[in-house]
Design goal:
Length: about 450
């Protein structure tokens, strides 16, 4: 689903701290030290990325090679990382590093005993340069296994500035104001929202933002861990709030049926394509990449965002996702793999992809000037400023059978709810039944 080498480390001391090396005194240096200490070695990296994401990550790997001499080989796994990596381990061909896109998968790998704990150098860098929440999501049983290299900001509502200007509305501050603005946009000739309901994961993101703001972070954490049942009144309340949007034909382009026949890229097209049908589309920061790359929109001029607004008197939510680098015990070159991970933990590595675009880093030390435009800088600042109030995508924390499988679990049940939002309590009961089965399994 889905992520400048200059001015980044302001002193030799910072470089030495970030890389665990005596970079200024002429002694031995580890990853990123520039002495080609890993020449002749190859690090194999597996991840879900393909297309432009894979090309941009390769630039980061090439920078690692330039500094250390280690060659790299990237293997695209497709969406089912767990199955592909498991089969490679069983076949004696485990990669050294895996970029894991879901907390649930990271936990699964750790529980199977596949992962090496992060090195002291990596742990030191993460402790100094990242908000503690990222350490929490990279840890299992108190042991830190994962470094979050690429983040997603999933609390952004993207809009056509021209459509909102034509309707005479400004970006709203509350959820109720957003729906009111949506009706005004609709009165001006466009639907308010394009909803990509054919992809069930977009609906989980809608629910998570509403739930985090309306119910609060403690209940969000409890529901994510299934320590709170989906039949809890807070879930019913969030579904009721979401249902009011889903059943309002003025607000949803094509109505419920149209939304169920619209995938995520098409939802972006309905706002930013050649024949606009809606003024706004809710999804993560990656909307900008689609709007720019596929429809030629200038980000900040033809496409912009406002933060997902506060719901029902709560705090505005910040839901995130991300890809964590982990090192496999069974990799043929796990030691060099750990050096790669130490490099990925530095702002220098993050800057390579930030400059290329389509990327956010949770690293607080990354110079905002590394990002290519003001809108991306604003999105990144929002993510960093949220600190420990960031909450990881709830469905990504769940077992895949519940939170990450097409046509099953939460994805299917929220599609059913989009089709008929008349019974939030009944939907909550079905969600609890599916969750209980998946978490037991």
């Amino acid at each position: 689903m889905m992520r400048r080498r200059t001015t980044l480390l302001t002193s030799c001391t910072a470089l030495a701290l970030a890389l665990g090396a005596t970079a200024c005194g002429g002694g031995p240096v580890s990853a990123g030290g520039g002495d080609k200490a890993l020449s002749g070695q190859t690090v194999t990296v597996a991840g879900v990325w393909s297309g432009s994401e894979q090309k941009n990550f390769q630039k980061v790997l090439d920078a690692f090679t330039a500094k250390t001499g280690a060659k790299t080989q990237f293997v695209s796994t497709g969406d089912n990382v767990s199955t592909v990596v498991g089969s490679k381990i069983e076949g004696g061909n485990a990669p050294d590093v895996v970029m894991v896109p879901q907390v649930g998968v990271l936990q699964q790998f750790a529980q199977k005993g596949w992962l090496k704990p992060l090195s002291p150098t990596a742990q030191q860098t993460i402790g100094a340069d990242y908000s503690p929440v990222w350490k929490k999501y990279g840890s299992v049983g108190g042991t830190l296994y994962g470094l979050y290299f690429k983040a997603a900001h999933k609390s952004t509502v993207w809009y056509s500035p021209g459509a909102l200007a034509q309707a005479g509305v400004k970006p709203p501050k509350t959820y109720d104001e957003m729906l009111k603005a949506g009706h005004t946009v609709s009165d001006s000739g466009l639907a308010a929202f394009a909803v990509g309901g054919e992809d069930g994961w977009t609906l989980t993101d809608w629910f998570e933002n509403i739930y985090l703001s309306q119910a609060g972070p403690e209940k969000y954490d409890a529901l994510a861990a299934h320590k709170l049942k989906w039949t809890d009144p807070s879930v019913v309340d969030a579904l009721t709030t979401l249902g009011k949007l889903f059943k309002d034909k003025q607000l949803v382009a094509g109505g419920q049926k149209g939304a169920l026949n619209t995938d995520f890229p098409s939802s972006v097209e309905k706002v930013f394509g050649p024949k606009p049908e809606a003024g706004m589309v809710y999804e993560g920061d990656f909307v900008a990449g689609v709007a720019h790359d596929q429809f030629g929109k200038t980000i900040g001029k033809d496409a912009n965002f406002f933060p997902f607004p506060a719901v029902g008197g709560g705090t505005a939510p910040v839901v995130s996702g991300g890809d964590a680098a982990v090192v496999l015990k069974d990799g043929k070159n796990a030691k060099a793999g750990m050096k790669l991970l130490e490099y990925l933990a530095t702002p220098e590595a993050a800057a390579v992809w930030a400059k290329a675009g389509g990327f956010l880093s949770p690293n607080k030390k990354l110079d905002p000037a590394s990002y290519g435009d003001d809108v991306t800088r604003a999105t990144a600042k929002s993510l960093i400023d949220a600190g420990d109030s960031v909450r990881f995508d709830m469905s990504d924390q769940a077992p895949a059978a519940f939170g990450g499988t097409k046509g099953a679990g939460e994805w299917k049940l929220l599609q059913d709810f989009l089709r008929d939002p008349s019974d939030p309590k009944g939907t909550a009961a079905k969600l609890e039944s599916a969750a209980a089965k998946a978490y037991q399994g």
